[in-house]
Structures are given as structure tokens and as C-alpha cells.
Specification:
Length: about 400
């Protein structure tokens, strides 16, 4: 029924201990007095029912009859009832039409966290439209849907939360409230210090006896103080003469980041395409790709002659812009919108990739990188990414169990 056909409108608000049949009983009176249901919302929180109905009728003289019937029913059943006159088309939240979802993740979100967060929003005329708790076990996770009168980027919202993040140990994601938020289809990881818990090139430097010099160049490159291509070539020169056997031995002891295997297993079960786009080396990425049955693995190719490294890189260097192009290329090949892409990385050469993706997650990253991402995780657990995808704690438990028996994860 169209609102224009119902010049008289009222809003019914009902609160009660939940039980079956409450809505059916309310609708008996609604139908008896010939009112139409224009909108309806119901939810149960800790056993308490909250029910709202927007009703319309072309007979304003029937309001008193409906209200009398509902008041009698509410009194007999111990229900809190409000009947409010409603101006046609009145939507107090309508001006706040630019909407985002803010996800907060921490070990414990105190009342002070909520207070500071809501004050931050209120001071900027940002309206809170909905709050949902995703988990309250090992991690405390909430989603807050917010609206503003003026268009804003996710970075704008994150900038508004800078002081909040400094004050509280909380990981945050800000995403546009669109259908794509829970419809991601592709995830792309950086390798070193993201999917892996080490910098492979630094480990190779140690084996080659050039550990200190290697680490120094790596640090400057990851901070953005050195051009990545120049830094990579300088470091690879230090590896000249290293045997392939040493690379094989290193691969066998590379530590995988906690949560990475569970995350991959679950996302494969959900049908995601998964890739690694790395400024590291194809020698290692190929092996990781094969081990975990990933869909893509893109990295730099070390030149090998007579089973030894020559100290040179073959082909184009996979730097920041190359990573960005790789993400765009994979998404196009798979037929996905970039809004359906998740990118995860920690270094300066990940910035463009993170900015390009619908959800860019700075993982234990430098502040420079975090400023260019719309989400950040500062804990060594990649599985936490699932919360930013809207997965609840209950759903996470179900996915862990279901994915373990999937043939896709038989690695």
C-alpha cells in the first residue's frame, strides 16, 4: 500500500518480554480497524522485544478505536505501548543519508570507549543509526552504522577517530554501507610480515652473511625512505652466490602468521579467490601458493644460474604501483568490482594496493600505511579480518567447523 493512499499515519511502539504471538495479537486490532502496515521493524535484545509499526489509513476517525483496543490489550498483557501521531513522509534520520559502517575490535570495549566514540560522532553531527554486537568472547566486536548530512570518505571518518585510536587500544574499520560490504569476493595479501611473520629477504641476508646491511635497507624501504626498486636491487646484489638449496631450507622454516591458515580455509569454503602479491620473491610465493591452493601468486623473479643466485632480478620489479595494477588486473579477470576486493599489507609499497581495494587493511603497519587504509589490525592474527567482513562470533565458530571438512582445504 502506498503512503499517498494513507493520509492519516500513526507510529506504534511496543516493548515487552518476548514471547510467541505478540505481533499476531497486535495485528488483530490493526486489521479490525482497517489500518495498513506501511513499515515494520522488530528485534529481540536480551529477551526483550522491541516492535515498531508505521500504520496508515484514510479514516482518521478510526484512531481512537484502534488505540482503545491496543491499550486494553497492552494492559491485560503487561506490555508497554505508545501510539504516536506521524506526519506523512516524516523521517528524522533522512538528512543523514551518507552512511558508513564502523567496526570496532578489541579485547574489551569499556563504557569509556563507547562514551568517547559517541562523543566524537556527536561533535561532528554524525548520527548513530544502528549498533550491532558481533562478538563478546575472546574479542569484543561491534558494528556501528552511522549517517552524516554531507558526503564523506572512509578516510574522513578515520581521521575523525585519530584521537580516539590514540586513547584506546582498538582496531577499527570504516566501510561504506553498501551491498558490497558483505559481498567481498577477492582477498589479496602482501607476503612478508603479513601472510608470513618474517622478511624473507632479511633472512636470506643473514644466510648470505649480510644481515645487518640487508635489514637496514629493508627498514628504510618499508618506511618509504628509499625507492622500492632501488632498495630491492641493492639487497639482491648482496645475495649473489647463494645456493638454491639454502632457499629451500629457509622455506621449510618460514613462520606463517597466526590465523592465516584458518582465514584461508574459511574464505576458500566461502568461495573467495585468494592471492599473494608480494615485493618478495616468486621462488617462495610459488611454494606458498601451491601449499595452500591459492589462486594467484605474483612476485619478483630471482635470476638463478647453475643453482645459485646471480644477484639480479629478472623482468619488471613488483613495486607499489605494480601491486596496485596486479590487484586491478585480478579483479577484472575474475569479473569483480574493486569494491569486492580486500587487500592486506604492512609496508609503504602496499599503500596504493590498499587504497585501491574496497577494504584496505593495514596489518601491524607503520603509521604512514595506516593513514592510507580504511581499516587497521594491530594484532598478529589474520583471522580477525573476518569481523571486518561482517562475520559474527557465532558465525565464525560455525565456519571453522564447516571449513575443516571441506575438500578445498585438504592441505
Amino acid at each position: 500500500m502506498l503512503e499517498d493512499e494513507n493520509p492519516c499515519q500513526i507510529h506504534i511502539q511496543i516493548s515487552s518480554t518476548d514471547r510467541p504471538g505478540i505481533l499476531a495479537e497486535v495485528l488483530e486490532s490493526v486489521v479490525a480497524f482497517n489500518w495498513d502496515v506501511l513499515d515494520i521493524k522488530q528485534f529481540v535484545f536480551n529477551g526483550l522485544l522491541n516492535l515498531s509499526l508505521l500504520l496508515g489509513s484514510n479514516k482518521s476517525n478510526s484512531i481512537s478505536g484502534l488505540q482503545g483496543s491496543l491499550d486494553e490489550w497492552a494492559g491485560e498483557n503487561g506490555v508497554a505501548l505508545q501510539v504516536l501521531p506521524w506526519k506523512k513522509g516524516f523521517r528524522p534520520e533522512a538528512p543523514y543519508k551518507y552512511r558508513s559502517v564502523v567496526t570496532l575490535l578489541g579485547s574489551s570495549l569499556s563504557s569509556a570507549v563507547f562514551h568517547h566514540l559517541t562523543q566524537t560522532f556527536s561533535s561532528r553531527d554524525i548520527n548513530i543509526l544502528r549498533i550491532e554486537q558481533l562478538d563478546y568472547s575472546d574479542h569484543h566486536v561491534i558494528e556501528v552504522v552511522i549517517g552524516s548530512k554531507e558526503d564523506h570518505s572512509t578516510v574522513d571518518i578515520l581521521n575523525a577517530l585519530v584521537k580516539f585510536k590514540e586513547k584506546f587500544s582498538v582496531d577499527i574499520a570504516v566501510q561504506e554501507d553498501t551491498m558490497f560490504r558483505r559481498n567481498k569476493r577477492l582477498i589479496v595479501f602482501d607476503a612478508d610480515m603479513t601472510f608470513l611473520q618474517c622478511e624473507i629477504i632479511d633472512e636470506l641476508g643473514i644466510i648470505a652473511g649480510a644481515g645487518n646491511r640487508m635489514k637496514e635497507i629493508t627498514q628504510r624501504a618499508m618506511n618509504g625512505d628509499l625507492d622500492f626498486k632501488f632498495a630491492l636491487c641493492e639487497r639482491v646484489k648482496l645475495l649473489a652466490g647463494l645456493s638454491v638449496l639454502k632457499l629451500e631450507e629457509l622455506y621449510e622454516r618460514i613462520p606463517i602468521t597466526p590465523g592465516a591458515e584458518d582465514l584461508v580455509r574459511i574464505l576458500q569454503y566461502l568461495g573467495y579467490r585468494i592471492g599473494i602479491v608480494s615485493g618478495g620473491f616468486q621462488f617462495f610465493i610459488d611454494r606458498i601458493k601451491n601449499t595452500y591452493k591459492l589462486d594467484y601468486g605474483i612476485s619478483n623473479q630471482l635470476e638463478i644460474v647453475d643453482d645459485k643466485l646471480t644477484g639480479r632480478v629478472i623482468g619488471d620489479v613488483v613495486d607499489a604501483r605494480a601491486k596496485e595494477r596486479a590487484v586491478m588486473s585480478i579483479a577484472k579477470k575474475e569479473g569483480f568490482s574493486l569494491k569486492q576486493v580486500v587487500a592486506v599489507g604492512d609496508g609503504a609499497n602496499d599503500i596504493h594496493m590498499l587504497a585501491r581495494a574496497g577494504l584496505g587493511i593495514a596489518f601491524n603497519a607503520k603509521s604512514l600505511v595506516q593513514r592510507h587504509a580504511n581499516a587497521g589490525i594491530n594484532q598478529s592474527n589474520l583471522e580477525l579480518i573476518l569481523y571486518f567482513l561482517g562475520v559474527s562470533g557465532k558465525e565464525l565458530q560455525e565456519l571453522r567447523e564447516a571449513s575443516k571438512s571441506s575438500p578445498k582445504s585438504s592441505w
